[in-house]
Write a structure and sequence with these properties.
Layout: H1 2-10, H2 14-20, H3 22-36, H4 39-48, H5 50-64, H6 77-83, H7 99-105, H8 122-136, H9 164-188, H10 195-211
Length: about 210
């Protein structure tokens, strides 16, 4: 995913790269939630969610492709359909309402802030996730690079200088959230932290900050 963001940046699509970087934020929230506590149970629940997707496909086939209902089912079909009952919603795997927010705001079992309180990912959710979402859902805020003066002839990418800042933002998101994913994943697997890699990422993030 990080490489995909970089490819978009290199090809001259900073806004699209910034929107795609939201996926890394979501990956981080998922990995952090799984590794934070009850890791094995949460990991199994995450993997088992494929059964709910399988169930949803069965519903789609019945509704829109009834002629295909007689097609052979995979070997895991019966087991998947039974297992899918464990998931109340077809739209999230945790069973939590407002899944992304709940994962982000769960109290950390590893880190505390300067006041000794468990860390929550409030900033990442309320700022980074919110801001990148503007470019995922294509709100008017994401169209600055295509805006024209009243009366002017519309041109796609006619004002791309307005999106230059998204280049640094997108690449910063790749570095920052990759490092956070590494940290949480290693905790969950009880593995050593990749200190050399994390140090290199920190240096790169610092260079972006100085550039801005």
């Amino acid at each position: 995913m990080g490489r995909a963001v970089c490819e978009l940046v290199e090809a001259g699509f900073p806004g699209e790269a910034f929107g795609l970087s939201r996926t890394l934020v979501e990956i981080f929230f998922n990995v952090r939630y799984i590794s934070n506590k009850e890791t094995e149970d949460r990991a199994k629940r995450y993997v088992g969610y494929f059964t709910k997707t399988h169930e949803s496909w069965m519903t789609i086939i019945q509704r829109y492709y009834p002629e295909k209902q007689s097609m052979p089912m995979p070997d895991f079909h019966e087991h998947a359909m039974e297992m899918a009952k464990q998931y109340k919603s077809p739209h999230n795997w945790t069973g939590l309402g407002g899944q992304v927010k709940e994962m982000a705001l769960e109290e950390d079992t590893y880190e505390v802030d300067s006041k000794g309180e468990p860390v929550k990912q409030i900033f990442d959710y309320e700022v980074i996730y919110w801001w990148t979402s503007q470019f995922v859902h294509r709100t008017i805020l994401s169209l600055a690079g295509h805006e024209m003066e009243p009366g002017g002839v519309f041109r796609i990418r006619g004002r791309m200088e307005a999106e230059r800042g998204r280049t640094t933002d997108a690449l910063s998101n790749v570095l920052i959230f990759l490092s956070k994913i590494f940290i949480c994943a290693c905790r969950g697997m009880q593995a050593d932290q990749p200190e050399e890699l994390l140090s290199e990422i920190t240096q790169l993030v610092s260079s972006f900050t100085k550039t801005k």
